[in-house]
Amino acid sequence: MATKIDGSYGEGGGQILRTALNLCAVLGRDVEIERIRAGREKPGLRPQHLTGVRALARISSAKLEGDEIGSQFLSFYPGKARGGIYSFNVAEERGSAGAVTLVLQVLLLPLCLNTSSSEVTLLGGTHVPWSPPFHYLSMVLFPTLARMGLRCEAEIEKWGWYPKGGGVIRVKIIPVEELRSIDLSIRGKTKKIIGISASSNLPAHIALRQKERAHQRSNRSEGCSEDEHGR
Question: What does CATH list as the number for 3-174?
């Protein structure tokens, strides 16, 4: 019998959908999710959610029902996830700058816990509002996961901005040999602050002002001198 999940629970966004599908693919559990994003301005599955759902179905030979734009119900019956070479395009359905990093969230754990390596190419938005940008993936998430034994490498071939997208990232995933627990409850001493200030189709001084404002705020909060900060 399929596990039933209320997709409007708590914050009620796409994260409950991605997490549920991720775990069910790993555990081989059937799932039915209803009221998907019910409280949002545009409820139901949006292009990036649909891309993630179909991508996970592809790598795990899953059976789907309800996989269409605007659907608030989805059934997912997974098979066994397989490593390999894959490519997924968020803009394939209606054109979208949907976040490629959120699509990767659905795929990452099943591919990491596989028996063979994978290479995944994702096309869509690499830096879009309300989603982790590519550089969070490469500079924060992947180094943290590496401490758990998960080995992932990401490179950006083309930046993709809202609303057009058009970005391209490539991710290499090596199956985990041993999954380790980590403790992040103690922050530790700040050693260095590194940031990236970027803009698209805007004057260069905007990115420079962003950088200078970040310097000002971090100097006040951390007590660091100008030369202790990354540029």
Answer: 3.65.10.20
